[in-house]
Every structure is written in structure tokens, then in C-alpha cells.
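fwd from M.: "can u put these together and see what the complex looks like"

so here's what she sent:
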Amino acid sequence: MENLDAFRAEVGKWLEDNCPPSMRKPLGPDEDINWGGRTKKYENPEEKLWLDRMAARGFTTPTWPKEYGGGGLSNAQARVLAEEMRRLHCRPALVSFGITMLGPVLLQYGNDAQKKEHLPKIVKGEIRWCQGYSEPGAGSDLAGLQTRAEDKGDHYLVNGQKIWTSYANYADWIFCLVRTDTNAPKHEGISFLLFDMTSPGVSVAPIKLISGTSPFCQTFFQDVKVPKANLVGKVNAGWTIAKALLQHEREMIGGMGFGMGGTGGGGALEQLAKEYCGADNGRVADPVIRDQVAQHAMDQRCFLTTLRRSAEESKAGQGPGAASSMFKLYGTELNKRRYELLVKVLGSQALGWEGEGFNTRELGTTREWLRSKGNSIEGGTSEVQLNIIAKRVLGLPD
Amino acid sequence: MSLALSEEQELLRNTAREFVAEHSPVKALRRLRDEKDPVGFDRALWTEMAELGWAGILLPEEYGGSGLGYAELGIVLEECGRTLTATPLVSTSLLGGNAVLLDGNETLKKEILPAVAKGERILALALEETSHHAPYAIATRAEATANGYRVTGKKTFVLDGHVADHLVVVARTAGKSGDRDGLTLLLVPKGARGLSVTRTIMVDGRNAANVTLDGVDVDKSAVLGGAGRGADLLDKVLDRATIGLAAEMLGTLAEAFERTITYLKERKQFGVPIGSFQALKHRAANMFVEVELARSIVLDALRAIDENRPDVSQLASIAKARVSDAIHLVGNEAVQMFGGIGVTDEEEIGLFLKRARVAELTLGDAAHHRARFARLNAF
């Protein structure tokens, strides 16, 4: 066994020495996590310093190989790093779809030149990626996508439209599913392309959501020229890569539900219930609310324990496959239930839109409640996850 | 401790699975029920299980036990749950046995525990007084006498009470019903003067009894856990038994779920397996998630006892609430998905539904444990 204690001591000391003071505080109301990218402006120089120091050790992508700038850590060491960062309240130095989605599939399916070109820039936060998957006519039926990429000898010519492209308006590059064969069965004519969002013919339009925010865009391609070197894997064999990436996405969203649940509403549910619904001898006065708060806490605990069991069983070579669908399904549904309960607990104070009469936490809860409605739609709806479980895990017939 | 099974634990699971499949398949429970067996479980089977070391699995070797932990007992209980095997594991090994082991005096331990490990002694906890689990709602009185106590009261839903050699009676030496203080646990031998025990036939074909104590005299040495301080011992015993019962329920609900999935693949209507219908697929997939979550929390709860963690009580309530809700869902869905055959006595799935509901209520249903969880967390 590797010596994790020595690693913990070393990495803990390094974090204390290298994490700037402002990066050990929670995000302020006007701050966002660092997504990196060409257009990122660093108003706080410590944010850049923190990213550069972490990237230099490969700690923005702890388990990636060192040759591409990663940390070269084992999974166990990466867990220790995460635990130490939590203990010392260090912010993540960088969050990106390059880290959680594109990187893992490039490591598996990319050629050497692609890995050398793109992975180090992801590690350092130089390039911010977006995901060109869904189309107006291809949501749950993703493989029905129609964005065309025509073979023009030395390049592909891309025409079509994507939708629900997260942060396309801030992204530098896109990983994109395109149709390269219109005659083949739908799963067999898809390819996986990478291209620069500043290429001529690319345009984006943010979509305003019910929460009032615009995290998603429509993305249009008109005669966009993409060099053939930017094709990942073989032509018409992109669906396998697309599915592998979706699995990483589901894991990310499933885990995110939890991260958001931990802080959403800015306080423990039971405390809010006492504050907003009334307390009786130090207990939540309404027994129905109390029961629902207890149910939610139990659901969270059971979900966390299942994540842990899945990790431990896969380490021991046991356990079910298609776990990512279960986590995506349950994590997002749990997060939606959390916000429904929060709104119930806060009552009319969670139903303000803006202005006087509501504090920041209350207004935030309203917006996050509305935003949470998308959780069980994006990255594959809950219904699609149920289909995957029924087919892949339970073996139920088509 | 990892939630993944070790090689030894996998081996124990395989042994237990093969044993119950051969010696106590579901039809064994049916036979006990149909023949109106006076004992309600198979004594010869219990002796064999004792020889495998399962009756005394938790007991230290000095009392003739196997010296293993809850993780291992949980495996045996889960496999017993799969075939609805009727055993005194909950009444004797978990409830009565723990009351003696965790706070009995040495004389009592030496007298009782080795006999438990051999499968020769049956114990029962006489706790409930109403139709709902309420461990402190005790009106049964124990009045001090010259040498001990005189016990008067009525108990219900006493698991294996009609065949128990000793009853652990929860009585009150002070305070009023509902108080945690003032409870005293007393060991009462069968046949004691003033003790009457009536077997109750339950819907799941298992054993319970109503018990009347009409001025039963017991000696001072019969006190377990200290006079008036019995709740400390009672809580510990109930936490452990609740987690053990949850492990048994996990086996029952996992088996009912797997049988249902098999049925969905076999049963054809409109010329196709009914499992190809999305209306059933999604319900099946939702059940799968509930089964997985139940399994995780039960495994963690069993390990929490073995590791002596401070959150054993919390985990007991989370696990029992979880498996109770899951077994309720799976039991009902299983019968519905089996269709007409599901409501016949001939098909075994109905026996799982019946066991599900009794186990769900035993030692507190989901609502009870959510309320308890809230209390433990001060909200």
C-alpha cells in the first residue's frame, strides 16, 4: 500500500503555504467559480495565482498523467487531496467541462497529437470548452441529431444548430457531435469533432430560463470549416465516444446535486424550519414538516453511502454497472426535492422575485428552486436514466 | 470498514445462501403455517444453524459463541430473509441475547448465553403494550418486594414469546408511561407463577404472543441494566436488533424484487414479455434504486455497530425507515406486477407481501424512525 499519511501531510502543508487567503473563503455574492478560458478576467490576482500554482502541480486534474500536465496521482491520493482542500476551505482552483467531460474521453480515444495539443491547456485553464450535443430536434433522442459535417477533402464543412449549449457564450472551443453519414442507421453516422468557437460561421444566442439566468445558449453553425485533424476517433464512430462522455457528465451532475444540496438555501434545513415554521421547545413545531426534513436528511445520507459503496465495490471488483445513471437520476431528483422543501419551509419569503422585502438568501432560494427544475432534464432526463437502468442493469427486453 | 464484502464474508454468504435454499426454502414456511406447527419454527433447523455458529454468532467465544460481528450476522439474516426462513435470530440472538450480553451479570451470562449459542434456549423481549412500537410507553409496573419485584401488566406482539424459556420484561419501577426514566428490565422464566402467554397467529406465519403478568415475583438478581435505568440498555438492544431486522428485511425485499424482474421477463401478453412495457420498466428501475439505497445503509449500519461508532442510533433509525419504505413499495409493486397470480395463495410472492408488512411494523415503522431521527438530531 502507498503511504497516504505522508502524502496527506505533504499536500496539507503545501496547500497551507500556497493557497492565497482570499481563496480560502466562500464565494462572495458577486463572485463565480473560476472556469478559466481566454476571456476570463482576473479582478482578484490571487485567483490567478491560485490557479497557476495548482496547475503547476497538476492538481487541477489530479489523476491525469504527468506527461499531459496532470498530477499523476492515484485515486486514493486524489481523494486525500480533495479532503485536505475541504479541510482547509480551499476553493477549487478551476472548474470546467474540459476537466470533467472532454479530458477523460480524449485520454481514452484521442490521438497523441490531440492529447498533447488540448490536455495541457485544460489543466492550466487556458481554454474553456463547451458541449455541442443537443439540438432542437434531438433531446432525449440525441442520436437523431442533424448537424451536418461534409467531407471537403482537407476539412469538414459544418452546418446546423445546437441548443442547451452550457456557457457557449463564454467558451473558446466546442466538442461537437456531427452527422457525417446521412444514409447510415442513426447511431452509425455520427462523428466527434473539436473546433474553435471563433471560427467564421459560429454564432451563439443565450437562452433566458425561468430562473432569470442564462446558463444555456443556442449555437449556430454556418459553413464552419473544421480541419480533419480535429476529428476524435474514427469517422462515423463518434457515438461510442459520445456515450462515454455522457457517462462522465452524469457522474458530474449526480455528484453536483449533492454539492448544491449541501449549501442550497444557506443553512441546514432543520434550522430554517425552526426559524420559518416555528419552534416548540427547540423542535420544529409542525410534525409534517419535521417528518419531511427527516426524510430528506435520510435520503441524503443513503445517497452518499451508496456513492461510497459504489466506489468501494468497484475498487474490490464487485458492484453493478450503469451506476452513473442511478446517481444522475437520484442526485438530481433529490436536489429538486430539496428545493421544493426549502420553498415550502420559507413560504412566501421564497416566492419573491427581486427588490425589497426579501433577503439575499431568500431571493437566491427562489432562483435556485427554479434552476433545479432543469437538473432532471439536462444530461439525459430522469426518464432516459430509468430506460438505461431497465435495459443495462435489469436486462428488461426492448 | 469497507462496504464491499471481504472474501470471508462472500464465503459466508454463499454458505448461508446454499443452506437456506436446501433446508428452508419458502415452502418450509408454508408447511409450518399449513400444519399449524405449535413451535412456529423448525427446531431441528435451528439446532443445525446453531451448529454452524449462527445462533451465537455475536457471542464471545467464552460463552460458546463465534465471536464474529454484525457484518457477518447481517449476511446470515439477509439470506434467511430471502427465503422467509422463520428463526429465533431476532428474538433470541438479537433482542434477548443482547439484553443479557450487554448488561447482564456474569452468573446470568454463564447460565444463559452458552445455551443460546447451542440453540437450546429461546429468549424473547416483552416490550410493546399497544399496537404501535413505543419503547417508553410502559405501564407494566414492577413493585419492590423484600427480595425483588412483583410485576403486573400486559404485553403484546412478543416475538417468539410462546416458546421462550425466558422473557425479558420491560417494566416500570418509577415514573409514568412515556417517561424514559424509571424503566427496569427483568428476566422472567417461563412457567413463573402469574405469567400467562397466549400465542398470536400473525399474517406472516411467524410467531408472536400476548403476555399477561399478574403479580409475577422475581428476584433482585433478575434485573438487567440497573433498576430504573433500563432505558440505556433497552436503547442499545433495540438499536442492534433494529439493524439486524433491517438486514433480514433487505434479503426479503431484494428477493421479492428479483423474482418480480424475472417474472417481467417471462410473462407474455400481447405476444411480448410484459417487461418490455415502459410503464413497468420505469417502476422496476425506480425499485432498483430503492433496493440499492437500502442495501448501502444497512451495510453501513451493521458496520457502525462493529466499529462502535457514536452514530449507531441514528443509523438504526435511517436503516429501518429506509428498508420499511422500500419493502412496502416492493411488496406492493411485486403483487401488482404478478397480476392475478400474485393474489393467489399458491404463488409465493404473496408471502413476501405478508412478511413485508409485519417486519415493517416490528420495532417501529418508517414514520416512527423519522420522528426518532429528528429527536436524536434536536429538531
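replying to her w this: Confidence is low (pLDDT under 50) at residues 259-266 of chain A.
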